[in-house]
Amino acid sequence: MAGPLKVVAAMSGGVDSAVAAARAVEAGHDVTGIHLALSRNPASYRSGARGCCTLEDAHDARRAADVIGIPFYVWDLSERFHEDVVVDFMDEYAAGRTPNPCLRCNEKIKFAAVLDRAIGLGFDAVATGHYARLRVAADGEVELHRAEDDGKDQSYVLGVLTQDQLRHSLFPLGDTPKSQVRQEAERRGLRVADKPDSHDICFVSDGDNAGWLREKLGERAPNHGGDIVDDASGEVLGHHDGTYAFTIGQRKGLRLGRPAADGKPRFVLDIEPVSGTVKVGPRAALRVGRLEASHARWCGAAPGRLMGTVQLRAHGSEHRAVVTADGDHVDVELIDPAEGIAPGQSAVVYDGTRVVGSATISATHPAGSR
């Protein structure tokens, strides 16, 4: 998109989105700031200056908009956020999977609900404080690339965006290190310049995912209680109060009472929510060589067969892989095996720095198997 645009700047109340909005104004766009009210009861979500869901965040966003000199509104998307992100998070854990609610929020809320509303109101684009870059290829396709600052790159959680959504998106911070963004915020007189970043799931107030799930799911069948068993021998090693408290690759909090015969730690290898069984075993058993995935979302054309890389966690490393897309089914052969990968996680596919798309892992296969 060329020339001045009518832009909605999504302002979370943090430093990144505030500077992104200011840069959009500086670029000559007609900018309106909006804050997303995502909690039906803000006090029940995050507390403190964590940059997402609190009343304090809404006030910080409004003050930043005043300093920048742009109109500001609050859009209430709490019902949709609850259904599309919070309930999905609970359902996935109840089913023994490990979801990433940030990807779901970007897919369903920030770049679907918000963009749809913005376009309906006559806006051209949505600007956010995500650290990622957009480039226009020779054929006119808008490409999503990793940010200049590898340490802050957020392209993984944007891997759900389609070509149409990318055409209506702006990421003004993609070429700037985070330290410079904070310095810029201070120069602009934005009070959020030193506000801490948010790292945990926004709707879990204290970062205790297992405790939050236990409270929300309670004795919801079939996840209330079960056995922790040795994967190799089938021996019952302990008991638990709910499968939702475990993730594949977990080591801490198993409370088994006695060590393995070789004295080495055990890890969660598998979760069976119907029977309530959690299987544990040695770290070597966590090595994954092949993934199957579904619910693919491509940033452009589907890749067919690609020799590239995949990232399997928001802050994880890249793994060289051969990715084959056939309709909605995606097969990933990992040249570099990964550890502790669970169904429900997202596999985001890269070709160099370019994000090709993403899919949700449905099955994993041990390294060395076919």
Automatic annotation (TrEMBL):
Disulfide partners: 105-202
UniProt domain tRNA-specific 2-thiouridylase MnmA-like C-terminal: residue ranges: 291-361
Span list, region Interaction with tRNA: 152-154
Principal subcellular localisation of the protein: cytoplasm
Protein's cellular compartments: Cytoplasm
Site location (Interaction with tRNA): 130, 345
Active site: 105 (nucleophile), 202 (cysteine persulfide intermediate)
Alphabetical list of InterPro entries matching this protein: MnmA-like, MnmA-like_C, MnmA-like_central, MnmA-like_central_sf, Rossmann-like_a/b/a_fold
SUPFAM superfamilies named in the record: Adenine nucleotide alpha hydrolases-like
Catalytically driven reaction(s): S-sulfanyl-L-cysteinyl-[protein] + uridine(34) in tRNA + AH2 + ATP = 2-thiouridine(34) in tRNA + L-cysteinyl-[protein] + A + AMP + diphosphate + H(+)
This protein's GO CC annotations: cytoplasm
Pfam families: tRNA_Me_trans (PF03054), tRNA_Me_trans_C (PF20258), tRNA_Me_trans_M (PF20259)
Entry EC no(s): 2.8.1.13
Keywords: ATP-binding, Cytoplasm, Disulfide bond, Nucleotide-binding, RNA-binding, Transferase, tRNA processing, tRNA-binding
GO molecular function, one term: tRNA binding
Domain of life the protein comes from: Bacteria
Task of the protein: Catalyzes the 2-thiolation of uridine at the wobble position (U34) of tRNA, leading to the formation of s(2)U34.
Family: Belongs to the MnmA/TRMU family.
Name of the protein in its database record: tRNA-specific 2-thiouridylase MnmA
